[in-house]
Amino acid sequence: MSTPGNTGGQQPSPPTGQTSAQAAGSIRDRLSSPRTSDQASGPGDTRTSDLHENGFQQTDSAAALQGHGRGESQYDSSSPPVATEELAGRKHPLGPEDAKAAERKVAALFLLSFLGVVGFVATFFLVPHEYTSSTRYLYTPLLGTFMALALGGVGAGAVLWAKLLMVDEEAVQERHPFGSDKDERGATAEALKKGLEETGIARRSLLRNTVLLGAGSLALLPVPFLFGLGPYQHKERVLATTAWKKGVRLIRQNGTPVRLGDLSIGSIESVFPDVEHGTKIADSPTLLIRMRPEELQVVEGREDWSIDGHIAYSSVCTHLGCPVKLYEQQTHHLFCPCHQSTFAANDGCKVVFGPAARPLPQLAISLDDEGYFVAQGDYSEAVGPSYWERDT
Amino acid sequence: MSLLSKGTDAGAVWVDDRLGSSNFVRRSLNKVFPDHWSFMLGEIALFTFIILLLTGTYLSFFYTPSLTEVVYDGSYVPLKGVTMSQAYASTLDISFDVRGGLIMRQIHHWAALLFMASIVVHLMRVYFTGAFRKPRELNWIIGVALLVLGIAEGFAGYSLPDDLLSGTGARIAYSIALSIPVVGTWTAFLVFGGEYPGVAILDRLYSAHILLLPGLILGLITFHMMMIWYQKHTQFAGPGRTEDNVVGSRLFPTYAAKAGGFFMLVFAVLAALGGLAQINPIWLYGPYDASQVSAGSQPDWYVGFLDGSTRLMPNWEIAGFGYTVPLNVMIPTVVLPGILFTLLALYPFLEARFTGDRDYHNLLDRPRDVPVRTAIGAMSITFYLVLMIAGGNDVIASVFHLDIISMSWVLRVSLFVLPPVAYFVTKRACLALQRSDDELVHHGIESGTIRRLPNGEFVEETVPLPAVYRIALTGVESDRPQLEGATAHGEEGKPKGPGYGDQHVVEGAPERVPGFFRAKRRSGPSDTSAPRPEAAMPELERSGKPAPPEQ
Ligand code: HEM
Ligand code: FES
């Protein structure tokens, strides 16, 4: 074909339409190094037999395939590739000694893989892995290393085998057209029309309308299941309420109530409603902050919501609900770690920076008879992120 | 050896007797796959998905998706006696008490990160080479669907351990759902089974993560592959490569050996990462607690751009008539990704509409040859990167001791200024690269030999560009002066143009794509600022083309 050495008539000529591929071979031949084209010769080539000995029956099978493919192309829209090394004008690039060396390299990689498996199995069963054992830091890294060797050995071996020892082929395959021809399309459309006619759906308008109604309404069947996934509690306004009620004490995470004087100036405490599971209720965590009374700019109408510089805000960020916890006593800024919204705790928790749109709601607090902090009632507005039905 | 071939024969006969599959199998074994390093990116995505299925199945044997409280009594000493959900406790067990459990967890997480990364880079290669053009638009859309499903799948998985970070992520997702006008509250309640944290979210995330989403992804990947199989892979221009053929190696044995080996290599890298590089150490974060958060917590990288858009958004909110629309949440987390993914999915159709190009394309574009598309791509990547950086603005600010407020402003401005700059610069660069190509094609390679003409003028001799390179650069085989070697292929070898058979525009049809999108190639006089041809050569050599001839 394209290679000077094997233009003899033994090769079946390629199907028409492959001419450009032939040309490819010839460009390649002329451009590739003289050594390659010298040696890419016909069946007499020494390395061909070398190939056979090693079981790579590339040449035979390729030729055979061509024969088959041509015979059957009427069944096969994608004609088989015009193989292979003849077109590419190359055998595999290694001489016999190099090939032996490459074979050894690949074999070494496969061996490495075996060792990796052995190491993995040994580590898996024999090395103590418990947190209390001294080898716990080694266990997982050793597993990983052996596993990587086991998998990588086979992987690198296979890739090298393909690169070094298999024919660097340049096979060419025709694409087949995607669209069908006009007759084909027409026949299909015809078959569809015929089928529809046989149902008589066009004539029987009663059937047509009722089947549309009946089958169409099937689409509604899953909808109730969707509603069943959860409650729709617009009426109960669950989002607008929390667990805080009049007289409920402010407790710490460990359950102890907070008394006036427990907090030093400039400090902050996470507090929860003293109700059942109070520390677990997601919308109720609150921050109790103490600052000098003169530093506090009390919001109008909230004069009696704080006591002696103690002021309480919801710790659920009004942006996306992360817990706001970081307090900077110099600036009185409360800081949300999620998207850096910053609130002025001494000024009604107004937003000074960040994507939050609303101040943190303030919880009105007072003291009970024993001197413990209690809530005067629930928050006067919904805490946390905004939502459609929120009406303040 | 003969035993092996006998066995193969017997096996083939046995199967063929029952399925008559010989013809199909042989055609499959002979299928030709073109070779280019960038075609491996999709393979990495496929392989990591398989690895995710394998490791995930193992994890599911031990994980319990339950919020029921238990007192931890496993071997991790620092948390002994702490009350926590069963989900968190079972994840601790996988990490400390199940043999090989930690490495499985870590491989699974690394594989998820690599999966998303390979999808994104694969998408970029498909975009920049124009592989999405007719007839492959459907595969592009499936690809975008896979990208979105991948993000959802990753998010669901991230939420399962019920540690401090994952609980925070779930709460943010709930709040995002709340922000949708009219149906938001309802949606959030249905998904979570009530007000946050609800009763059901963990079970639902679990069945989504191990059944629903992987099932969808698997189905779509299967479809993706079938379509590639049927339509055959695209290829770059080169000698003998036309719109109507595929040039490469056959599936069996060469391609199969390389791809199989590559799968093992990807798995090996992930095994090494999973064994040696710690990831998501949930025992350090502690169990989820609605009132706790750790500073500087970051989502996995593929959600980072949404985190960034959320951070940069001004704090706008509309309230009135008893209703509230939280624009500060809805725009960056619902509207923006909605627009981005819709545009992404529709891109092939938008481009076709804009250029009027409705032809089949099996030869890939070199990015520089379509400056506008490439520039749009660069613009989008820049936009995405600014958002990603914004997602880590607190970390960056604290590492470099910057003020977070001014940093946010810089990023806000960059988000609108840098993408157009990227567009402009990229387009210029493409045109410059085209010019240097042109130089090579028309004037040849500088030989280094300076000749003095009789009139005293010095000229440098050039060597004509070898045909292989010329074809790779121009995609044209025959309308230019032929090298001696190329003449053999005559008229028949002329690429038939992008069409097939009789239904499409055929040879000699004028270029239908308006100059705005592509083909701004200027064949002007040499421009000294253009890269020297020598600089371009090694790259061509690396791409596996044969060495140029000695002249
Ligand atoms: C689960 C994720 C994905 C997997 C496992 C996957 C896998 C693959 C593989 C193995 C190939 C062939 C090799 C290659 O060209 O790289 C491929 C081709 C392709 N992929 Fe994907 N892919 C994924 C996502 C995507 C995405 C996100 C897009 C684009 C939005 C996309 C669009 C395409 C297209 C158009 C082709 C055909 C390319 C051609 O023939 O040149 N895929 N995919
Ligand atoms: S959740 Fe607080 S800033 Fe976003």
Automatic annotation (TrEMBL), chain A:
GO terms for molecular function: 2 iron, 2 sulfur cluster binding; metal ion binding; monooxygenase activity; oxidoreductase activity, acting on paired donors, with incorporation or reduction of molecular oxygen. PROSITE patterns: RIESKE. It is a multi-pass membrane protein. Signal peptide: none annotated. Residues 1-23 have a biased composition (Polar residues). Residues 1-95 are annotated as: Disordered. Its main location: membrane. It is found in: Cell membrane. GO terms for cellular component: plasma membrane. Pfam families: QcrA_N (PF19297), Rieske (PF00355). The chain crosses the membrane at residues 106-127, 139-162, 211-232. Residues 312-374 form the Rieske domain. Keywords: 2Fe-2S, Cell membrane, Disulfide bond, Electron transport, Iron, Iron-sulfur, Membrane, Metal-binding, Oxidoreductase, Respiratory chain, Transmembrane, Transmembrane helix, Transport. It comes from the Bacteria. Belongs to the Rieske iron-sulfur protein family. Iron-sulfur subunit of the cytochrome bc1 complex, an essential component of the respiratory electron transport chain required for ATP synthesis. The bc1 complex catalyzes the oxidation of menaquinol and the reduction of cytochrome c in the respiratory chain. The bc1 complex operates through a Q-cycle mechanism that couples electron transfer to generation of the proton gradient that drives ATP synthesis. This is Cytochrome bc1 complex Rieske iron-sulfur subunit.
